[in-house]
Structure to design on (630 residues):
């Protein structure tokens, strides 16, 4: 109870509530800008959380995620351009409603559906992660090694269709994690004589470079997006009859968002499209889908926001980020010396409870802010893209420099950006690399500590019960992901074979 | 197919360089059984194997018919990305000497103007011209 009291005190007495509001505002702006995904909006703020207390910092980042999912629906509905990937499903009926002069109504449906989804997801998050706190004390070095392996085993499901490419990305991440002082012998590795590298390469530099800098490099080569017509666009909250129609799609979005959120690699986009399809299948008016259906907007928007909370289940419970946004939030924890996973509940339970409270505030803030922010959002979307890119680049550089007043860090971030650009070009996924960077030290140090404890006997990893269970889970997860990958491939091959040439 | 090939070759080259660097690490008296170079060498071997698998995949896959068109159409965005990178690098080099404010404003202005300018002479700023 003391942790809950401490969380309550931190939430109400400090900067957590203003941080939740600020995060939602930033998230909505970021989400509304096509090309700025929730993870990029979060990555841009990540360096600025260095100087903050841990609770407002993680609440700020999580709130950006919540806000961005609603923000993404604004250009999707008004200019047929999704602000975020998961808002693509919203275009189908949202833009159609806008064409029929019901854009404000569609935005209102998106906003309240997001609120319902976010609150449901929060309940699921609290229920799912709480039991994991109880096993925290059973964790030994072999168990931590096995936990790292479990984290790496999700690479198969994060590889985006090519397991080899996913493995290459993960190995690159592990390589980055080996830079710096060796955890056991103290030998400096791969530092090229640079003293700045003795402490290793901070994950935040890799994340900001990969997600933000490489995106700017991509965006600078792409044409400007369409501009929104700001006349007569006013948000309209749904009435009683519309609420009645939204119960079924909200329920579908809640269930699918929960399943997809806790599954590493699935995420909001898949949840949104699946919810849309299921809502159509179970609807009393399936003929309205694609022609401006209320349910067609409500289902994906509810699912999106369920995922903002449920995607945190593997992160908080096991320390495994299942999505890009969760990886950035993990960076926020690491900045403040906290390692998400079972020990987080043991060492910093007040942060976890405050995060739950912060997410609750963020969802309510999304409703309040969403009612008034439409005008400024449309103004921002209508600015020339080059100005926005210039502003974001200056923000990235200033943010990274402000961490340690180090131009070396800025250079490393740019190098990560170039690597990210190359990775996008050849189709290497980012998330396995981030996993490698984040889990590399955990895996190597605990592997070697375990072998020191067992005098070099590898049997220690199967003698420890928690380690054995986690390793088995890793094997099962990797096997299941591979099977799913093979099924998808054979399905695609059959479809290609059946299609006319 | 070219991208698959590039990925495979890059992975193999990186694995070889990384293995050599790991092999050159000094041995410490405090070292354990695995050693400071043990895990990096394992990573290098795994990366090399993945590189070989990627090369095999690239060799087995048939070349798409319109591969040449993609290269021609794709040059401009890369140049613009390079321009943005150039501005960022110049910013890092110049800022310690002239200060934050003085460096940030011209860098931002250069970036925001570069998409609007028409003169080919300004293409160093990532201008599409």
């Amino acid at each position: 109870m003391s942790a809950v009291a401490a969380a309550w005190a931190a939430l109400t007495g400090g900067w957590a509530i203003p941080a939740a509001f600020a995060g939602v505002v930033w998230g909505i702006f970021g989400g509304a800008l096509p090309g700025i995904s929730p993870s990029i909006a979060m990555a841009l703020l990540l360096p600025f959380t260095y100087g903050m207390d841990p609770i407002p910092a993680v609440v700020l980042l999580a709130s950006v995620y919540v806000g961005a999912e609603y923000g993404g629906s604004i250009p999707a509905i008004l200019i047929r351009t999704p602000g975020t990937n998961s808002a693509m499903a919203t275009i189908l009926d949202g833009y159609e409603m806008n064409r029929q002069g019901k854009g404000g109504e569609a935005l209102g449906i998106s906003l309240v559906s997001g609120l319902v989804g976010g609150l449901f997801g929060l309940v699921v998050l609290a229920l799912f992660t709480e039991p994991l706190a109880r096993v925290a004390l059973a964790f030994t070095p072999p168990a931590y090694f096995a936990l790292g392996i479990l984290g790496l085993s999700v690479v198969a499901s994060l590889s985006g269709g090519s397991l080899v490419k996913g493995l290459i990305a993960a190995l690159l991440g592990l390589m980055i994690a080996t830079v710096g002082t060796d955890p056991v012998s103290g030998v400096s590795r791969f530092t090229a004589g640079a003293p700045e590298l003795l402490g290793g390469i901070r994950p935040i530099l890799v994340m900001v470079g990969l997600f933000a800098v490489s995106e700017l490099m991509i965006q600078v080569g792409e044409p400007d997006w369409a501009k929104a017509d700001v006349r007569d666009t006013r948000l309209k909250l749904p009435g009683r009859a519309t609420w009645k129609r939204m119960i079924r799609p909200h329920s579908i979005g809640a269930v699918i968002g929960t399943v997809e959120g806790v599954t590493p690699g699935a995420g909001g986009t898949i949840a949104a499209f699946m919810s849309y399809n299921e809502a159509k299948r179970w609807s009393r008016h399936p003929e309205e889908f694609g022609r401006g259906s209320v349910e067609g907007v409500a289902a994906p928007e509810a699912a999106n926001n369920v995922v903002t909370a449920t995607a945190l289940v593997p992160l908080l419970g096991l320390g495994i980020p299942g999505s890009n946004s969760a990886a950035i939030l993990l960076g926020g924890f690491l900045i403040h010396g906290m390692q998400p996973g079972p020990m987080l509940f043991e060492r910093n339970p007040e942060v976890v409870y405050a995060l739950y409270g912060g997410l609750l505030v963020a969802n309510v803030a999304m409703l309040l802010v969403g009612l008034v922010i439409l005008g400024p959002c449309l103004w921002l979307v209508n600015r020339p893209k080059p100005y926005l890119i210039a502003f974001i680049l200056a923000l990235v550089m200033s943010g990274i420099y402000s961490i340690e007043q180090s131009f070396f860090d800025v250079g490393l971030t740019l190098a990560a950006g170039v690597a990210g650009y190359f990775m996008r070009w050849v189709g290497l996924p980012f998330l396995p690399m981030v996993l490698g960077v984040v889990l590399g030290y955990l895996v190597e140090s605990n592997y070697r500590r375990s072998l020191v404890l067992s005098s070099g006997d590898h049997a220690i990893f199967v003698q420890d019960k928690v380690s054995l269970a986690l390793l088995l889970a890793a094997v099962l997860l990797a096997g299941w992901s591979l099977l799913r990958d093979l099924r998808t491939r054979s399905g695609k091959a059959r479809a290609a074979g059946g299609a006319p040439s | 197919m070219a991208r698959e090939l590039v990925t495979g070759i890059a992975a193999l080259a990186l694995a070889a360089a990384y293995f050599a660097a790991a092999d050159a690490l000094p041995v410490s008296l405090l070292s354990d059984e695995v050693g400071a170079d043990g895990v990096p060498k394992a990573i290098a071997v795994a990366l090399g194997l993945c590189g070989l698998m990627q090369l095999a995949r690239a060799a087995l896959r048939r070349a798409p018919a319109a591969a040449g068109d993609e290269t021609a159409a794709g040059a401009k965005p890369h140049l613009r990305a390079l321009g943005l990178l150039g501005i960022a690098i110049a910013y890092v080099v110049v800022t310690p000497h002239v200060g934050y404010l003085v460096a940030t404003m011209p860098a931002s202005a250069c970036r925001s103007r570069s998409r609007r300018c028409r003169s080919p002479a300004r293409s160093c700023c990532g201008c599409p011209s």
